Amino acid sequence: MIRKLLSLLFCAALLMVVAAGLAAWKQRSVLEQPLALHEVRLLDVQAGDTPGGLFRQLEAEGLLQDSLWLRLYWRMNLAEQPLHSGEYRLTPGMTARDMITLWQKAEIVQYSLTLVEGWNFRQLRTALTAQSKLQQTLQGLSDEEVMARLGQAGLHPEGRFFPDTYRYTRGVTDLELLQRAFTRLQTVLAEEWEQRDKDLPYKDAYQALIMASIIEKETGVPHERGEIAGVFVRRLARGMLLQTDPTVIYGMGERYRGKITRNDLRRPTPYNTYTQAGLPPTPIAMVGREAIHAALHPTEGKSLYFVARGDGSHVFSNTLAEHNRAVREYQLKRRADYRSSPPPRQTPTPSETTQ
């Protein structure tokens, strides 16, 4: 009797070992199965989705088999693992285990938008609108209404956003990204203002930002930023007009068609530094840290004038006579496609990365 009982127990134990082995083999084979993909697929995981539901969905779509085993695997091994919403990139050759690893690491697809130094606010808004993965909440709003949404009612938007590459995931709003750029500019400006040179002709950091935007638009080669800043600072200190074309162009708005006429230089606008003394009332473009730094650390010297060579660089002069000679030498040789400042940069297409 005891022998029979032992024999039965042995058989039962053997069956359990065999069953466990078969279950382990089955689970391993299910995890290592390649997803039935022939091209990249973005799996959109919404808030509230569960791994079990996604396994069933993918099985119904024919991308994997035996979703029951995958659900059991998650329940037994990863029950406490949160599933982050977002887009996950599934690629040909990826296994079910690889997909689960993506979920564990929350490797969500990210997109990027590059805001470029020298862009104005209109160009910034155009770039935001072109981002199909951003949730658009600002379309149809005026610039004033956009600033109010940012909690900055009454603040002029120009130059208030920091040019950089910003990464985001699907569903982030255009307002959120704009807020990040606004906050970043405030941080950079405060850091640079704290380290500024003494005896600068600015009442506050905002005036330095205005100057930085002029430097940004006038600079064709980076190493000239400080020297251009020096010219403008010395002109301000002496009560001279700044006489800089980019401010005139900004004040012309949509009237600007690529050329500035004598009438344009005579027409008074708040931004015409040929007729208005001092700085314009607002920045004229977005500025990088380097332009802000140059505005707050102008290169020492005596130059009061500069003229563009036509290749992005400038000739600097200490006296009006020297400047007039440089004007005759370089401006009379201008080509039809001449630019005194860097050519406008194109809005970049959105790129895609993973978190």
TrEMBL record:
Reaction catalyzed: a peptidoglycan chain = a peptidoglycan chain with N-acetyl-1,6-anhydromuramyl-[peptide] at the reducing end + a peptidoglycan chain with N-acetylglucosamine at the non-reducing end
Alphabetic keyword roster: Cell inner membrane, Cell membrane, Cell wall biogenesis/degradation, Lyase, Membrane, Transmembrane, Transmembrane helix
Protein known as: Endolytic murein transglycosylase
Disordered as annotated region, ranges: 333-355
Keyword Lipid biosynthesis on entry: no
InterPro entries: MLTG-like (IPR003770)
Record-annotated site: Important for catalytic activity: 218
EC number, as in UniProt: 4.2.2.29
One Pfam assignment: YceG
Keyword Phosphoprotein among record annotations: no
Lineage of the organism: Bacteria, Pseudomonadati, Pseudomonadota, Gammaproteobacteria, Pseudomonadales
Family assignment from sequence similarity: Belongs to the transglycosylase MltG family.
NCBIfam families: endolytic transglycosylase MltG
Cross-referenced CDD domains: MltG_like (cd08010)
Record's function text: Functions as a peptidoglycan terminase that cleaves nascent peptidoglycan strands endolytically to terminate their elongation.
